[in-house]
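Q: Protein A?
A:
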Amino acid sequence: MKQSNRSRHVVVALGLFALAGCGSPVDVDVTKAWEDPEFDFDYTGDLIAFESQRDGNREIYLMKADGSDGTNLTNNAAADGDIAWSPDGARIAFATTRDGNTEIYSMNHDGSGVTRLTDDPDIDRFPSFSPDGSRIAFASSRDGNSEIYMMNADGSNPVRLTDDPEEDSEPVWLNDGSGLVFFSTRSGNGDIWMMAPDGTGLTNLTDDQAFDSAPGTAAATFDGPARISFVSDRAGGNLDIYTMNLDGSDLSRLTTADADDFDSSWTSDAELLSFDSDRGGDWDIYVIESPGTNTVRLTTHPADDESPAWRPR
């Protein structure tokens, strides 16, 4: 289960998996696929992958973008999460504990073709595909604390990008491939940082006393520049979703509920963001328009549904 604010994120940054409103809710039936063996999931159209503990442990699921239907992609006794789509929407990279420690794997969008990408006794998490699909950025504790690494999409040639005694984690590529944004505690509290793909040009984008984490990026649209979404407690108390320009300017708060909101993911056209929230009593998936309007709840299962990721189109 998620924890709140700084204590929750420290667990995320250290890579420990849990093993074991607003708007009108959409009528959800994301249990249909595994209750009915005759159900044939439609892998076309707009889809959202997400993490859920609805069958007793953390798995990766896929549902339609309106919250309907659904299928369990991983169906494994281990904990599976940290979803990252390949830019063509054909593959998903993810972290799993199925080998006894946390490693990065990839699979086809229907759950087939599972391939192990990392093989290290320490924790590897938070994969992110480059826009051309050739490389994966990820976080690893293999050198003593969480740092950002880069490897080829097949897992070969891992290279360390950051080297700091504090935590560097949650790397996400800019949509044009020019850089990476990531979470770091190197400034004394949680901030969103940016760097070039080779680890140079480090820049703190949210140099603030607030706790900022969980970045996501969106390409430019017809009505504005590229944006970064992130989570912050700067409004006091709970976590909300914010967006900003790539240089940290034009900060905008999207969510204002008296609850924790986390894990934002943009549609390819940057018009919508999905996120998870405990505003309904447990963690569920929501969608909001990028200006912060018209929030809709997608899942209503009593188990926690978290970390949504839109399939690229």
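Q: Protein B?
A:
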Amino acid sequence: MGRTSVEWGQKPPFPETHYVDSLVYTDEGIFEEEKQKIFAKTWMLACHESELPEANDYRTYHHPAGVNLILVHGEDDEVRAFYNVCPHRGNTILYSPSGNAKRMTCIFHAWSFDYQGNCVGLPREKAGYCSDGECSITRGDLGLREVRTQVGYGGFVYVNLDDECDPLEEHIGSALDTIIEQIDTEPLEVFSYHRAVVDTNYKLWHDTNSEFYHDYLHVHNRLTSMKQEGYFDRKMIPFPNGHAEVGSQEVHYEAYEGGKGRAEAGFPGVEGNPWSLIDLFPGYSYNLRASVLRVDSQIPLGPNKTIVEYRSLGLKSDTEDQRNQRIQDNLVIWGPFGRNLHEDLLAVDGQGRAIPNGSRYVLHGREEDSTIHDEVGMRHFYAEWSRRMGRLSSDPTSETEAGKPARI
């Protein structure tokens, strides 16, 4: 028998850590607050260093806090990030998503800047910016606004808009320790980039990566993982700052339609066909398989629209045969034309919707001693979200003391 409207609208009979109010997915005001309290103060994954291989290569990045950045590979081999804004009239400097420019020149008045953000070109400089023959402003006063930037953890470029932020390594902590030797021993290279614009909240994509009860969604996963020995013994391991790891497992690809193992092109120290997943707050995932590292990153555009970027990487030193193997594996299994990704996209498009005159609550209540289907990863994420937002994810309309959510 179904539930009445009164029953359907009641809060779940669980601790408040075990469910969230769907307003955290749909409310415009909460999303605007996330921009300031989370996105603008957290290290965000912008791109990979292999996407900027040459001096003066650049990429633009739509930062989730709502600003546009330039990432540039300097002639000194450093990667820097700047606001994509000319200091003169606030005009956008670079419109192309990527390219190579020894001088980055604003189209409005032709002010130009170098890879260090210095102003190196100022038309009619003396005539326009001098008083009584003495310059009152110089190029040194007109540089681009720089953003904190660090490269690491597999060669990824992270940025933080907060000048006073802690170093990247303090934010990541030990969350990537189990795979760091595999991804940092040799330089990596992006061989596949895909992006999808999804009508969903960014947290719903991260939720799906944070719990594996959703493996029932995937025919391929049920055969190659869920039916294999050791699957239900894997642990979900929380780390400080909202990160979590899904314990590794040997995947039996041969169980799916006569498929073969994927170890022909591997990573340093990886044997067989293991699989590891680490979710980083507020919305990144490192997926290390036998032959492909896929890193998912998100660019929230609004409470109900998100760009998800998928980068698949191999070793920069790959032979032609090794690279072809990685490409083939990515196409067949893990990439946009593979067996899993489209199912995830369909699922997150339908989750978390507030029902008019009905339940607003989304459950994170499974407890299985922190094993693979325990939703501890999701609860851990929302504890960090609540801490940063100063409001409970289960009751976001009630503000708490900043940084200290009540009753978490």
